């Protein structure tokens, strides 16, 4: 592992105190999300969506839904990561794009599309939600490391009312909220944490 990625992993902390006057341009947030979504996903079907909260009025409502946590309003942006439980609807567009890019030939595309269409539309909803949650989590973690590399702080937040979130922000039934990620400039050091001994968490067989 390179020294740079090791440093990023070791220095990333979940930040709660942000400089409320610091702004990040929409274009840069898009760049970071584009890089984050290079994360692996189930059959490359990319079962994630993002809502970037910048508007102060919208964030006041979001803060209430997130149990009044102040970083919702002081961070430069809050990124809601959503899962797509109907990600099978991406099958044609994903494999058409791969074919057009020359990454798969016609016969491979036919096999991949056929396998996906026989599998995912008929999988139980809970199974599809689990896959989407897992994949979106990979993208979320990648986003936080990308932000750290650019000098920004982040903090993942699972503590919010997901039902109220979906209602207030008119989330279609196809999607479901997973995590909020605050993004901005650190205004106070995050507290340090420890980890349990890895020898107690690993079994070689």
From TrEMBL:
Report whether Ribonucleoprotein shows up as a keyword of the record. Answer: no
The protein's matches in Pfam families, at most eight in alphabetical order, are given as: Nitroreductase
Oxidoreductase found in the keyword field: yes
* Single GO term (MF): oxidoreductase activity
Keyword annotations for this protein, in alphabetical order, are: Oxidoreductase
Residue ranges of every copy of the Nitroreductase domain listed in the record: 9-185
Q: Which InterPro entries match?
A: Nitroreductase, Nitroreductase-like
* Ranges in coiled-coil conformation: none
What family classification does the UniProt entry report for this protein?
Answer: Belongs to the nitroreductase family.
What is the protein name stated in its UniProt record?
A: Nitroreductase family protein
Query: Which organism encodes this protein?
Result: Neobacillus mesonae
């Amino acid at each position: 592992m390179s020294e740079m990625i090791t440093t990023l992993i070791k220095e990333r902390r979940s930040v709660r105190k942000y400089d409320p006057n610091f702004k990040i341009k929409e274009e840069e947030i898009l760049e970071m999300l584009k890089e984050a979504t290079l994360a692996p996903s189930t059959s490359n079907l990319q079962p994630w969506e993002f809502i970037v909260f910048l508007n102060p009025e919208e964030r006041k409502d979001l803060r209430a839904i997130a149990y009044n946590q102040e970083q919702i309003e002081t961070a430069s942006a809050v990124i809601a990561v959503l899962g797509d439980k109907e990600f099978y609807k991406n099958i044609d567009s994903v494999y058409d794009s791969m074919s057009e890019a020359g990454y798969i030939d016609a016969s491979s595309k036919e096999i991949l599309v056929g396998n996906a269409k026989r599998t995912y539309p008929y999988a139980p909803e809970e199974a599809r939600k689990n896959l989407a949650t897992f994949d979106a989590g990979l993208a979320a973690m990648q986003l936080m490391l990308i932000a750290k590399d650019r000098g920004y702080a982040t903090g993942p937040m699972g503590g919010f009312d997901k039902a109220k979130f979906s209602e207030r922000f008119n989330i279609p039934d196809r999607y479901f909220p997973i995590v909020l990620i605050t993004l901005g400039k650190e205004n106070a050091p995050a507290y340090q944490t420890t980890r349990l001994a890895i020898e107690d968490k690993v079994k070689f067989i």
